Amino acid sequence: MSDVYVIGTNMIRFGRYPQRTVEDLGAEAALLALQDAGLGIRDMQALYCGNVGEANRSVGQRILQQIGQTGIPVVNTANACATGATAFREGWIGIKSGLYDLVLCIGVEQMGRGLLGGGSSYAGVPTEGLVGSGTMPSMFASLGMEHSRKYGTTFEQFARVSVKNHHHSTLNDKAMYRFETPLEQVMEAEMIAFPLTKLMCSVNVDGAAAAIVCSECRTRELGLMDRAVRVRASILKSDPYTAHNLALLDFNTITRHAADAAYEMAGVGPGELELIELHDCFATAELMHYENLRICGDGEAGALIDSGETGLGGRIPVNVSGGLLSKGHPLGATGLANIYEVVTQLRGEAGARQVDGARIGMTHVVGAGSSCAIHILEKA
Which DSSP letter does residue 380 get? Predict the structure, then answer.
């Protein structure tokens, strides 16, 4: 089976676009990615589109109506927060199987205002029966409190995640918010669900990102190997059954399940990663995922954030894009925006936020329901 490469990728600046449609945003990201690869829509053999909010309205086909209806097959995906990463994985499968040589993957979303999961359902998943008031903030607050109970993790350590990611965002002109937040400001912000203040919650925004996925043979024919990034692992998992699944969605178990499979497929260990874009939907989640992704031992996440090793210039920079806490979290686009960030870093094109010498990176996203997608990427 052929190796699979990303040969083009881009994203629009995440923000609020009330005067535009979902297909407008998706079309813009698609054209930017095609331009990055030096290709056109006629070169694409298939389209995979991720979107949650309008999943039953053929968003992929509507995007093609704007950029060129060439008759190619279109697959629309919806998989909670893992939607964009699922679309990317479907494109990877199409290339890996030998069915296609060039495919276009798009993730796009328009989000309402307010807190993630603040309504009666979250990405189509009923929230009745979840901990707290049935919202994502209360759920991740409870998970953070459990981590504190077991390991002594402090409110201040959770808050440091936001300080770090907000700092990173000041270096990313595609992030929704670009400002520093000193530790005291994060801790003194409006309390949403202890230990999560408002500045420790991800941002609901509109956004779109896209990637061109290609076979090795075609990548070489196009002369694009010098900027290509190889997909060493593409993993999508659902949560294995445990009794507590019936009362509490386990984002820890599913991430560990997927991470172990990704390391095995890629033939690398966590110590070989040089950057990670992980699913920081809330500050508590980022700390837990340090342990879930094996970049530190159980109970060591608090000390890791204190050490500065997950900041730009540290041993293993995490969310140098600003993460969901600053860049924003448009559900269908998040997974592909993570791909864009890591590919840009591995190409050495990230500017002021560049991770020096980065050659191997990981993307991670987890969605209620449950789903977890992990990709390990390597500079060609």
Answer: -
Using the predicted structure, report yes or no on whether residue 123 has a pLDDT greater than 60: no
The confidence score (pLDDT) of residue 132 equals 43
Give the orientation angle of helix 283-292 with respect to helix 136-151, to 10 degrees: 50
Please provide the distance, in angstroms rounded to a whole number, between the alpha carbons at the two ends of the chain: 17
> What percentage of the chain exceeds 90 in pLDDT?
86
For the stretch 104-124, what's the b/e string if a residue is b when 16 or more beta carbons lie within 10 angstroms of its beta carbon? Answer: bbbbbbbbeeebbbbeeebbe
In this structure, the number of other CB atoms found within 10 A of the CB of residue 55 comes to: 18
Give the whole-angstrom CA distance, residue 215 versus residue 6.
Answer: 9
Tens digit of pLDDT for each residue in 227-261? Answer: 999 999 999 999 887 766 654 567 889 999 999 99
Would you list the domain boundaries of the chain? 4-113+203-379
Fold of 4-113+203-379: Peroxisomal Thiolase; Chain A, domain 1 (3.40.47)
Choice among 167, 168, 257, 329 that is catalytic: 329
Active site residue 329: yes
375 assigned to active site = no
